[in-house]
Specification:
Helices cover 35% and strands 23% of the residues. It is of the alpha/beta class. It has one domain: Alpha/Beta hydrolase fold, catalytic domain (Rossmann fold, 3-Layer(aba) Sandwich), CATH 3.40.50.1820. The strands form 2 sheets. An 8-stranded mixed beta sheet has the order 1-2-4-3-5-6-9-10, sandwiched between helices. A two-stranded antiparallel sheet has the order 7-8. Strand 9, helix 7 and strand 10 form a beta-alpha-beta unit. Helix 2 packs across helix 3. It is globular, with a radius of gyration of 17 Å.
Length: 240
C-alpha cells in the first residue's frame, strides 16, 4: 500500500489508507510510526475483512515532516483530528496504543458523533505527568529544566520540558471525563512502562458504564505477541 501525504498548514502528514466498509483509525504511541506491529496487523486484518483502515505518522515521526522534539500532546492531537476529518467518513473505531490512547480519548471527545468505539492498548493518558514528571528525581528535573530535554537509558526518544508543560493543558484523569462511546482497555500485567492498574484508573474516570478492562497476565507494554494481536482484533471485531 503506497504512502500518501496530507498537507496541513506547515506540515505534511504521511498516511496509509485502505477503503472499505465501516472504518478503523489507529493512533500509535510515543515516537512510533505507522509501520509498527499492531498497526500493520490491524491493516492486514481490515483488508481481509473489507474494512476501511487509516494509519498515519504524527508530525516529527516516521515519514511525516517536522522535528520530533517540537511535538506536543496538543500538536499531535491536532494531527490526529486533521487526518480523521480529512480522510475518514462515517462512524469509526479508534484504536490507540500507549500515548495514542490519550490522543484517541481526546479525539473521541472532540468528535463524539463520529467515534463509535475506543480500544486502548496500554493506553497512557496523562503519562507525561503521572508516569514521567512525578517519577523523576530532583537531579533529573534540574537536567530537564536546564537542557530542555532528558533521555532515558536504553535509547528511547527524548522527553522534552516543552512536551511535559504543554501536556498539562490536556490532562484527563483529574476528574471524570465524558466518553461518547464504549471503551475497551487491553493492558499487560508485565508492562514496565504503564502499570497494569493504570487501565483500572482510566475505566474509573470514564463517565459511562460501557467500559471494560482486559488484563493480560504475561503481556508486556507492546502487546504484540500473536495471542495479544488476536485479542486486539477480537476487541475491534465487537464493533464491526
Amino acid at each position: 500500500m503506497p504512502v500518501e501525504f496530507l498537507s496541513v498548514a506547515d506540515r505534511r502528514l504521511a498516511y496509509q489508507r485502505q477503503v472499505g466498509r465501516a472504518g478503523l483509525v489507529f493512533l500509535g504511541g510515543y515516537a512510533s510510526d505507522m509501520d509498527g506491529t499492531k498497526a500493520t496487523c490491524l491493516a492486514e486484518r481490515c483488508a481481509e475483512a473489507g474494512i476501511a483502515c487509516l494509519r498515519f505518522d504524527y508530525r516529527g515521526c516516521g515519514q511525516s515532516s517536522g522535528n520530533f522534539t517540537d511535538g506536543t500532546i496538543g500538536a499531535w492531537r491536532d494531527d490526529s483530528l486533521a487526518v480523521f476529518d480529512a480522510l475518514t467518513e462515517g462512524p469509526q473505531i479508534v484504536v490507540g496504543s500507549s500515548m495514542g490512547g490519550w490522543l484517541g480519548l481526546l479525539l473521541a471527545q472532540a468528535r463524539p458523533e463520529r467515534v463509535k468505539a475506543f480500544v486502548g492498548v496500554a493506553a497512557a493518558p496523562d503519562f507525561t505527568e503521572d508516569l514521567v514528571w512525578d517519577k523523576l528525581t530532583d537531579a533529573q528535573r534540574e537536567t530537564l529544566k536546564r537542557d530542555g530535554e532528558i533521555r532515558e537509558e536504553g535509547g528511547h526518544a527524548p522527553m522534552t520540558l516543552k512536551l511535559i508543560e504543554e501536556a498539562r493543558r490536556h490532562l484527563i484523569l483529574r476528574t471524570p471525563f465524558a466518553l461518547p462511546c464504549p471503551a475497551r482497555l487491553l493492558q499487560g500485567m508485565k508492562d514496565t512502562e504503564v502499570p497494569w492498574d493504570y487501565a483500572l484508573r482510566i475505566a474509573q474516570h470514564i463517565a459511562q458504564d460501557d467500559a471494560r478492562v482486559t488484563l493480560v497476565k504475561n503481556g508486556d507494554h507492546r502487546l504484540s505477541a500473536p495471542e495479544d494481536l488476536a485479542l486486539l482484533w477480537g476487541a475491534v471485531s465487537e464493533f464491526l
